[in-house]
Amino acid sequence: QQKSIRSKYVVNDIEAMKNKLREFRLSGQKTPWIHSLTVTSSSPLEIADIHDDFNREIAFYKQTLQGVTECERLCVQHGLTVRRKPDFFAEMIKSDQQMHKIKTNIQSEKKRVETAE
Amino acid sequence: STNTDNKKDQSIYTKKRVLFTSTRGIGSKYRHLMSDLISLIPHSKKEDKIDDRKTLSLINETCEMKSCNYAVLFDVRKGTDCFLWMAKTPLGPTVKFHITNVHTLEELQMTGNCLKGSRPFLQFDKSFDSEVHLQLIKELITQIYSTPKGHVKSKPFFDHIFSFFYQDGRIWFRNYQITDQEFKKESLLTEIGPRMIMHIDKIFSDGFGGNVLYSNPNYVSPNNTRSDHKLSKANKYIKRKH
């Protein structure tokens, strides 16, 4: 009953969305790969139980890894350098302090497991 | 002349700026999420908080003033419900999501890291191509999250990937660091964060306004979830009583 009240306002204007999609695609077409770096998996991901955290994350990981392989192949094809040069230093997203905290956390977790065993 | 034409053609992709803003009372968790995304997106621009939720369309003008062509708004209500708006301004479209299951970069479980300013790879699950509203969302996310080649604040290396999955009627977001492994051809992925689940609510034709082009029949607002929960609790009590 509740559900039917909520779905009273269901809209799915496919024609208008198709027009919008055409309109807001930059210069009317797909962005060149060198600017978007975007890939789509070859087949849809099928996950038996989305609430099974472990297997869901494995599935996410595997599909992403395929995406990485494809992106790196396209980088080479478009003449883009993939890996950072070892002498290239720059600021990271997470600070040294944050990375230190993460490391300490892993070590204390390891110790906890060891003592428990 | 072909060279200048070429340059002009490219500028449509390279002149990109995304305005990030929030409503008042965003709270620490969603403020962290917003600053995480700002630091991960080199072509982002942070803007002051919005005072009036009733005039969101003013964001279009703010974008014009700050020479931004996209906007992301964190609209937090009751201190708990976070609505994420993504828009191409001013002509649209705009997508409104309700976001849940948020984990930020602060959390120690996610051990990955990446360069500030490295351009992300973007990966979408094939299921985004299955329906028109998902195709539209995929295009908008691609335009907002991808950093164009040669952007001034970007670095010419690749060490992380944004992944988008459409599962169980919702969009799942992940961000992984990419590293080489010794003695193995396969790369190693380590989650950097943040994480979130995006529930599609509505798609609007314009920037923060216009017609509703799509309204998700399976979307249940957090208010309704709460009232359903309360109701089921109350019913339990009534049942017990009789």
Task: Explain what the structure shows.
The complex is a heterodimer of chains A (117) and B (242). By secondary structure, chain A is mainly alpha-helical. Chain A is built from 5 helices and 2 strands, in the order H-E-H-H-E-H-H. The relative contact order of chain A is 0.05. By secondary structure, chain B is of the alpha+beta class. Helix content of chain B is 28%, strand content 35%. Chain B has helices spanning 2-14, 28-40, 58-65, 132-145, 222-241, and strands spanning 18-22, 44-46, 70-77, 81-88, 94-103, 121-124, 160-167, 170-181, 184-191, 195-206, 209-215. In chain B, strands 1, 2, 3, 4, 5, 6, 7, 8, 9, 10 and 11 form an 11-stranded mixed β-sheet that branches. The termini of chain B are far apart. The model of chain B has no long low-confidence stretch (mean pLDDT 91). At the A-B interface, strand 1, helix 2, helix 3, strand 2 and helix 4 of A face helix 1, strand 6, helix 4, strand 7 and strand 8 of B.
Descriptors for this entry?
heterodimer, A: 117 residues, mainly alpha, 5 helices, 2 strands, 56% helix, disordered N terminus, B: 242 residues, alpha+beta, Rossmann fold, 11 strands
Q: What is the oligomeric state here?
A: heterodimer
CATH architecture grouping of chain B = 3-Layer(aba) Sandwich
Structural class of the helices, strands and pairings of chain B? alpha+beta
Largest Cβ-defined interface: A-B, 65 and 75 residues
